[in-house]
Amino acid sequence: MVAQTVHPNPNSVHILGVDVSLLDMEQTLALLQAQIASREPSLVVTANATALVIAHDDPRFLTEMKSAKFVTVDGSGLQWAIRRKGHPIVPKVTGVDLVERLCDLSVKHGYRIAFVGGEPGVAELAADNLKKRFPGCNIVLARHGYFKPDEDAKVAEEIAIEKPDVLFVAMGMPRQERFILSTMNVIQAPIAVGVGGSLDVFSGRTKRAPKVIQKLHLEWLWRSILNPYKFKKLTALPRFIVLALKEKK
Fold first, then answer.
1. Are 181 and 4 in contact (CB under 8 A)?
2. Do the beta carbons of residue 136 and residue 107 sit within 8 Å?
3. Does position 226 have pLDDT exceeding 50, yes or no?
4. Which residue from 199, 121, 188, 196 is spatially nearest to 156, judged by alpha carbons?
5. Residue 224: what pLDDT?
């Protein structure tokens, strides 16, 4: 893994060894735009309770998360843990929302965006749909994520040719973060974000929860109903609660 400078952020809270951002979407976007202007490659992690449980069990992944420029709140479990530590409610900054907002900003600023992940055809379809939604969105690359770790260097060279300002990688945790960190010196994307199943959403293969479900903080249940495989991941939530309760406020 390529070493990365850690940037302490006073606008964060320590949860199970990880500094989680307390910034809302607008504040996050402002800093991400400044990061693009800096041209320094960086990792952004969109984290939920499952991510922190994985990091708790996997010291390597914990180190990788600690190297991120930002770790944003992408789950109601994390919102609960942050409130427990005495902070106000923190709005979610999810992978899906970051894709939308940065594609929108691409129209105005010309940011070069690359998609990597999903089954063959998913990234391309997601790119087509987002270009229709945001005319002028500068998506310069869309390719599937079905390649092995020993192919990472080759894929990174393909991506680097397009000189992306923003790289979205949808291959699940911790695979997507490891791909980003191991190739960032080649790709040189100022912003690289692991976004899990977001490309499935924008391709139309997976429907996002209705707004009312999102407001009730039940989007996790909606995703599990649509994809029973995700029920296996729900076992991480009770463990996260137990671990968070043991942690000092």
1. yes
2. yes
3. yes
4. 188
5. 54
List pLDDT tens digits, range 135-156: 999 999 999 999 999 999 999 9
Q: Taking residues 50-62, report their average pLDDT.
A: 96
Element (H, E) at 24: none
Spell out the long-range contacts of 194-197 with Cβ–Cβ below 8 A and sequence spacing 24 or more. Answer: 194/43, 194/44, 194/45, 194/46, 194/95, 194/169, 194/170, 195/46, 195/95, 195/96, 195/98, 195/99, 195/117, 195/168, 195/169, 195/170, 196/46, 196/95, 196/170, 196/172, 197/170, 197/172, 197/223
91 touches 30 (CB < 8 A): no
> Under DSSP, is residue 191 helix (H, G, I), strand (E, B) or coil?
strand
Q: What is the CA radius of gyration of the chain?
A: 17
Location of structure tokens 């310069």: 140
Q: CB neighbours (10 Å) of residue 161?
A: 10
Which two three-digit tokens encode residue 157? 């060279």
